[in-house]
Amino acid sequence: MKDVAARAGVGLKTVSRVVNGEPGVTPDTERRVRDAITALGFRRNDSARILRKGRTASIGLVLEDLADPFYAPLNRAVEEVARAHGALLINGSSAEDAERERELALAFCARRVDGLIVIPAGSDHRYLEPEIAAGVATVFVDRPAGLLDADVVLSDSFGGAREGVAHLVAHGHRRIGFLGDQPHIHTATERLRGYRAAMADAGLPVDDAWVSLGTTAPERVRREAERMLGGPRPVTALFAGNNRVTVTVVRVLATARRPVALVGFDDFELADLLSPGVTVVAQDAARLGRTAAERLFRRLDGVLEPPRRVELPTRLVVRGSGELPPAEG
Amino acid sequence: MKDVAARAGVGLKTVSRVVNGEPGVTPDTERRVRDAITALGFRRNDSARILRKGRTASIGLVLEDLADPFYAPLNRAVEEVARAHGALLINGSSAEDAERERELALAFCARRVDGLIVIPAGSDHRYLEPEIAAGVATVFVDRPAGLLDADVVLSDSFGGAREGVAHLVAHGHRRIGFLGDQPHIHTATERLRGYRAAMADAGLPVDDAWVSLGTTAPERVRREAERMLGGPRPVTALFAGNNRVTVTVVRVLATARRPVALVGFDDFELADLLSPGVTVVAQDAARLGRTAAERLFRRLDGVLEPPRRVELPTRLVVRGSGELPPAEG
């Protein structure tokens, strides 16, 4: 507050009046104080104040899909960080529905959480602006916030997919299919961009028939995989855009007439015990959650910094399925 | 209220006074009214009244272990029922810690949830008595409540384990090991009881060295499985008490020197694609969640019935691992 007063050229009492909405300040002075506050990146942080008062903090985590095991270690890591800070964690799942995400995040705020971690389903998070202004620390994870400048922690979806597809190319594949999640999902399009970059790097054309984005419902994935594996110029390899897709592709390939190479984005339990083991581009889901939660608690501790975007590297795990050579069509 | 008034032999106004704690009622009359309320199973249901007023209901779900995929479909089913009723679901995880379970459940109540679904970690739920008396509908799932008469939805752990072990006996096994979760967990001891019953049914002795309860940490499960498979009289088959145990046992058996039969409690993703496929006693986790949630919403709708215990059947799924014959030691 001293810095704000100095910058605005007013006394501490005047700053206090503006911040607390008390009368006795001219519009011009009020504007100067507000400009100084904005310039200094200060914002009234109720959460930090509450924490200092020793009340148990609570954190709301808006998850995406409960049935996707990728999120379990992320969720658990957030919970562990919260517990280490003596805070209570409450969750809810948007089930990939933007309206539901909004409803949940606002319901958590109405229940007076001190901070929010959001795995976005929607692409417009301006609805959180009043909450953030009121002091609810907010961090986005797995996917970026839409139309809002906020902390975000991501995996390198583009780089990871590019490396995975380049791995297939290095094993002799020229016709490679890409099966991904719905096109409005940031990670789905980033991974597709990585696929296209790897194909372009190798001077390989991409046939429209080799690319399919849509829901991860097993029926759709199965249909599209079978389509790409059939016809006169079938693909010899598939890149699966996330673990839900990979698991269905594994089922399709278990009954395929010839070996088909496969690299999947995301590691998953038992991937190494299948025959062949499934080569994956692994994300560190626990580290995503831990990093986001630690960032949130720094905010709750009152650290004032511009929003930061953290991108975590992925890791290619070679197990057999991605090293199969192209089979005769 | 009419029934209460009739039974207590007083007017409606008197019942209303007692229920709302207003003065002007003699102790004797008050006792008669309260006895009538108890006899009729009536309790003041704030939740139901709130729902009728049209406010959005919220449900708290206290989960156990986020990293156990068994709970994902249960959680999701609860969420779907809640959504169908226009209610908001918030979750938290006890991580198998009784104190954390209590803290979470009470925090949800403090945040004014209308109902609670609890997967118990602890064995004494009397701490919920005041909340239940105040109108928070409560249903327990997967494990029963401790020292509290409440609705509960379970799987038939005893019957399922008995059937799974009998299946191993039917394939010629005489020395069968049981690897289960910690002994304070109801499902763990029920499944052990099922194992002992199946062995007794077949007139087979149980060596103490064949039974091991404890955490599902992979190191412990691996060590115990290797111990049972070594020595002069190794087991020829293993029964795994839940999916966390089964997954580790599958890893141990993948490098075993001779084939060992395996039946696991709980189905799990990709169990059918392993070699051999893993024979399991499957629970219907989604149905557990759905049944518990529907029970809760009946309570929230104001249905007044004595607490009910629902036990869902399990299903033996034959895939190969449980049909291997006993190998030479």
Keywords:
homodimer; 329 residues; alpha/beta; 434 Repressor (Amino-terminal Domain); Rossmann fold; 3 domains; six-stranded parallel sheet; six-stranded mixed sheet; elongated
Task: Offer a quick outline of the entry.
Chain A is of the alpha/beta class and 329 residues long. Helices cover 42% and strands 16% of the residues of chain A. Chains A, B: Residues 1-53 form the HTH lacI-type domain.
Explain what this protein looks like in three dimensions.
The structure is a homodimer of 329-residue chains. Chain A is of the alpha/beta class and 329 residues long. The first copy, chain A, has three domains: 2-44, lambda repressor-like DNA-binding domains (434 Repressor (Amino-terminal Domain), Orthogonal Bundle), CATH 1.10.260.40; 56-155 and 285-312, Rossmann fold, CATH 3.40.50; 157-283 and 316-323, Response regulator (Rossmann fold, 3-Layer(aba) Sandwich). Helices cover 42% and strands 16% of the residues of chain A. In chain A, the strands form two sheets. Chain A has a six-stranded parallel beta sheet with strand order 2-1-3-4-5-11, sandwiched between helices. The first copy, chain A, has a six-stranded mixed beta sheet with strand order 7-6-8-9-10-12, with helices on both faces. In chain A, helix 1 (2-8) crosses helix 3, helix 8 (157-170) packs parallel to helix 9 and helix 10 crosses helix 11 (243-254). The longest helix of chain A has 16 residues, at 186-201. At the A-B interface, helix 5, strand 2, helix 6 and helix 11 of A face helix 5, strand 2, helix 6 and helix 11 of B.
